[in-house]
Write a structure and sequence with these properties.
With 304 residues, the chain is of the alpha+beta class. It is built from ten helices and 15 strands. A hairpin with a 3-residue loop joins strand 1 and strand 2. Helix 2 packs across helix 4. The N and C termini lie far apart (71 Å).
C-alpha cells in the first residue's frame, strides 16, 4: 500500500482510521458514488446522478472491526464486497416524499448521535442521561433508511409525532417473550431478535417487564442486544456482572452502541457509574438512586 492510501487529505472527526477511509473512498468512487460527509462510524454518500444534498448513510463500524483483524492487502476486496452489496440495496427501495405512506414501517433507533454538519442528516433527539440519540427509520425487508429533517418538512409532521408512531410499531413487533431470564441465580433478562431494533426496545422496558419499584439497570452494548436487571438489594452485591456483560459484548459484537450502564426509574434514564478492575469495584450511582433504595427498603419492611 502507498502512503497516499494510508493518509487521505485532511483529518476528520471519526473513529475510522485514515487508511480505512481512503480505501472506502476509492471503492465508492469506482462504484460511481461520492463521499458527502463522514460520521463517527460511517459515511454519507451521494449516488450516481444525484443532486447535492440527496445523500444516504452507510454504517461502517462492523466492516471496520473486520478490517482491523485482517491484513491491509485484504482490505480492497473486503470493502468492495461489502459496498457492492450495500449500494445495491440502497438503490432498491424508493424513499417516499410523504412518510404517511410508510407509517407502518416506521421504527425508532437508539444509538450514538450523528453529526449535524452535513446538509442532510437524520432527525434525532437526545435521550437525556445517556449521551445517546433516538432516531426514526423506515424499515424495509433487507435494509432501512433514516428519516431526515427534509423528509419531515415534505410530510408536514414533527419528529416527535412520528416517534410516538414508531414506538407503537416497535411494541407491536416485539415478541411477548422478547426478554428472557438468562439464569436461575440472577434476575437478568436479555433480549435478542437480531432484527436491528433490539437496542431501541430499551425505550419500552417499563412495558416489557413487570413493575420494579426501584427501576431497572439497562445495558445496550450492541444494536442487536439488550439486557435489563430489575434493581433489588440482592442484586447490588453482584452489580459488577452487568458491567462486565456490557463491556464484553460491546467489544465483541457487531454494531456496538455503548458499554455504559444506565438506570431507568419512573421513565427517566440516569448514568450509573461502575468501574471494574482486577482488584476493585467502584460504583457511582446518581443521588436519586439512594432515594429509590430507601423506598425499596421501606417496601420490603412493609411486606415483612
Amino acid at each position: 500500500m502507498s502512503d497516499e492510501f494510508d493518509n487521505p487529505h485532511g483529518e476528520i472527526s471519526t473513529e475510522l482510521s485514515s487508511g480505512f477511509r481512503a480505501a472506502v473512498t476509492h471503492t465508492l468512487i469506482d462504484l460511481g458514488y461520492s463521499v458527502a460527509t463522514w460520521e463517527v462510524d460511517g459515511v454519507n454518500v451521494r449516488a450516481p446522478n444525484k443532486e447535492k444534498g440527496d445523500e444516504q448513510y452507510i454504517g461502517l463500524s462492523n466492516l471496520y472491526r473486520r478490517a482491523k483483524g485482517a491484513d491491509k492487502a485484504e482490505w480492497p476486496a473486503m470493502i468492495r464486497e461489502f459496498l457492492e452489496h450495500l449500494t445495491g440495496v440502497l438503490s432498491g427501495p424508493k424513499i417516499p416524499d410523504d412518510l404517511s405512506t410508510v407509517a407502518s414501517q416506521l421504527r425508532p433507533r437508539l444509538g450514538r448521535p450523528f453529526s449535524r454538519e452535513g446538509k442532510t442528516y437524520p432527525w434525532g433527539i437526545p435521550l437525556p442521561g445517556t449521551g445517546l440519540e433516538i432516531n426514526i427509520v423506515i424499515d424495509y425487508p433487507h435494509t432501512m433508511a433514516y428519516v431526515t429533517e427534509a423528509m419531515l418538512k415534505k410530510t408536514g409532521s414533527t419528529g416527535e409525532d412520528l416517534l410516538d408512531l414508531a414506538l407503537a410499531n416497535l411494541k407491536e413487533n416485539t415478541p411477548p417473550d422478547f426478554l428472557d431470564k438468562v439464569s436461575e441465580e440472577l434476575d437478568i433478562f436479555v433480549g435478542h431478535t437480531a432484527d436491528g431494533y433490539d437496542a431501541a426496545r430499551a425505550l419500552l422496558v417499563d412495558e416489557l417487564l413487570p413493575d420494579s419499584p426501584a427501576g431497572f439497570w439497562v445495558v445496550i452494548p450492541s444494536r442487536d442486544e439488550l439486557a435489563v436487571w430489575p434493581v433489588s438489594m440482592a442484586a447490588l452485591s453482584k452489580i459488577h456482572v452487568i458491567k462486565m456483560f456490557a463491556q464484553d459484548n460491546f467489544r465483541e459484537h457487531a454494531y456496538p452502541v455503548t458499554d455504559d450502564v444506565f438506570w431507568v426509574w419512573r421513565g427517566t434514564w440516569y448514568p450509573f457509574g461502575i468501574q471494574v478492575d482486577d482488584k476493585n469495584l467502584t460504583v457511582s450511582p446518581p443521588d436519586e438512586f439512594i432515594v429509590a433504595l430507601k423506598e425499596l427498603e421501606g417496601d420490603d419492611g412493609d411486606r415483612g
